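Query form — protein DUF2334 domain-containing protein

QUESTION: What is the three-dimensional structure of this chain?
INPUT:
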Amino acid sequence: MRLVNKIKSLMFIVSLLFFGLVMGKTQVIEASTTSDRVLLVYDSQNDVRSDKKNVDALQRSLTSMNLQVKTVQQADYKKGMLNKNYLGVITMINWRQVGLINQNFVADRDKFSGIKLHIGENLTATEASQLGVKVKKIYQQQLILQSSDNQETLPFKQSITVITKKNAQSQQIGTLMTQQEDQKTYPFGYINGKQGYLPFFTHKGLSMIVQTQMIAQLFGKTGKFQPLLTISNVSPYSNLETLDKLSRFLYKMDIPFAISMTSVSENTGMKAFECFTAVLRNVENRGGVIFLQMPTVSSGSDTDGQILNRDFLTYIVSLARQQVFPVGVSAEGFWNQDKILRSNSLKYADHWLLLPDGQKVTYVNQDNNSQISKQSYFSMPATSLNNVKKSDTTTFPIPTSLSIPMPYTQKELEHVESEIKSLPLSWYDPVDSGLSSKISTETTSLQYNHGSYIVNGKVEEIRSASSNLNKQFSDGKPTSLFSNYFKVQGHILAVFFVIIMIILLIFIFIGQKVYWNRFRR
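ANSWER: The structure tokens for DUF2334 domain-containing protein are given below.
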């Protein structure tokens, strides 16, 4: 039976290679050349407070709006960079103590006739005039953000610039309220024609939702999207039994979901990899879709992307051979800011799931020219919305993925299941919503269309995992070659010592009896 399976696998690989020869060069899915371009200029990443997460979140949210973004730190801005080729410009003050001091940019921005958005402090008199507002700075406040019937208490701020008088034709998105007895209110998101203003930008909570709603509206990209439930950090080293139980739970709850998982390029013929892919087939058969997550980048080891390209092709072929068909790729946001990383991974797929940057960001060839795909999901932790009112009618202004980390223990699994039950959302369903995606490499074309998987033009039926799959699960702990021998030996020794102890107790009892009989005589 194993020989037959190996022959089938070999035939499958040969067919993939033949397809590659027929197709010729790699089919790379390019972003539309007619897409809108935006220039993002920020003052500083503010690594001291880890506010670089705000820059990353803004970049990813703009990508989800199908906006191509050129990001420039103010120190690198040169006169004339902002021109008519851009639909709009965003000024981001990420560290008020630094502020925007590049006068070439300020002059170009004042003359620019496209869409203009200012985020943060240091609003100039010219910007205030173009916005048609009067502003003032308030100090040491912990404001409340309100949008519709949702409220969020914001972190304490040393200072914030608020609008005190607005244009009659303007639009307001969200309201800021003080917590004093004489409560005062100010606009949060503000739009006046082509001009927009946000007093700050943050990467989580209700603020994130309202901010993206305002920016999407300013750039004419408004939409309503159901969130995609995503289980993140899945890998061949995860607790597979827990993953299988979680997918079964979601299937029984009739909750569509996705997983973001990494693969391996070596040892794909081992039993452990077969067990991993068997669980992934269960995921597919239970209504889950898979995003192939890009690996950790090693500094200086792959300057031209050849290793990444080779590994990516290996991932696709080895997974497809086991009937695991990703519908897209997932990666941390900085991958879309790097020419080598982007062109050797993201560009193969037309659906992206953009994750928040981790603590360590390693570029290969950073160009800060983020591109777009057919659809990009902005990923944020589900826990970041704990304090936001949610219901089955809640929608998001951009394609959004709410992620929950992969549980490893039974206790963590129970917590995740409870967390999912407490999210009263109407989740994005790839089948009912008609998801149509494609990954194209030199040898393989994977398509997903309304729940059907199509490989090199042929519809594939996902075979069920083996019924004895549970017997193959491991708890992840290494097992010694002689572990069973020593275990049996230990049991024998335990029984032996118990027998010896019983015999000794008997002898002690008899000896004690003989001893007392001597005194009775």
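ADDITIONAL NOTE: The mean pLDDT is 87.
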